[in-house]
Amino acid sequence: MLDASRCDGDALDVETACAQLEVREEHFREALADLVALGLLVNRPGRGFVAVSPDEATTRVLLPLESELRTRRARVEEVRRRLVSFSPVFDASLLARENRRQIETIDNLPDVRAAIAELSAKAGREILTAQPGGGRREDVLVEAAPRDYDTLDRGVVMRILYQHTARSSRGTQSYVEQVTRRGAQVRTLDDQFMRFLVFDRECAVFANPADPNGAVVVRNPFVVAFMVETYERLWLTAEPFEADGDAQPEIMDDLKDAIVRLLTAGMTDAAVARRLGMSVRTCRRHVAEIMTSLDAESRFQAGYLLALQEQPK
């Protein structure tokens, strides 16, 4: 055992201790440091190193560690509480970012065209197009035709909806002739419908009612599915567009029926023309022809006579 009588105050005769214990000095110093660290040896002023019982050492050494551990645990819980408090803010921000990604508003025509061009280039399966308003403007067709030709040549299925009045547009007829040769399907309806496009049933672009030069891009799957269902219903009631330069008789009958129906509902010539995608002058010409063929003296009478003709005999 180590003889405490050979210790002078805080000093220790290391050489004598090593000789007594028959150990090398470096091993002695390592063991001494470990015992002091564990609290099993305490350097008492005037007495040197004194052995301490393990129970007393346990209390002396572990109490500070346990206190520190409790402090750290409290700190951990405090940090956890503060971090969790940010979760609602982060989740709301994440939801807002997701909503912005799913619904994007574009407020100018060049960016709308750029977005449509990009989505068309990325489409791999199908594009559904609904274009009301009668014949399409020449500048729109010039911009759209090369893109649509390329899309069709890549094997993408394309269906296009117009209003019946588009059949009287030479430019639209020429465009329809070119795209149908490449596999597109084109149909027309008598009444107005929403302007929109659907790409691969994953993304849709529709006109912004509040901004004639803007559009809204939607990627929400539920909204896109609803738009696809709407398109399919319109498609079932539409008539095939044969680009032969002449409107089919039944198409003209549908158009005239729509004119009379809207006029008898109280709409003005301008409102009817706008809804059916024709000029006011053309609308009035059709109204005159309808009243003459029915020998009607008023538009209301023309509507009544048409209704009588449609009743089953």
TrEMBL record:
Every HTH luxR-type domain range: 258-306
SUPFAM superfamilies recorded: C-terminal effector domain of the bipartite response regulators
InterPro entries: Sig_transdc_resp-reg_C-effctor, TrmB-like, Tscrpt_reg_LuxR_C, WH-like_DNA-bd_sf
Domain of life of the native organism: Bacteria
Name of the protein described by the UniProt record: Helix-turn-helix transcriptional regulator
Coiled coil (UniProt feature): none
Signal peptide range: none
Ranges annotated as spanning the membrane: none
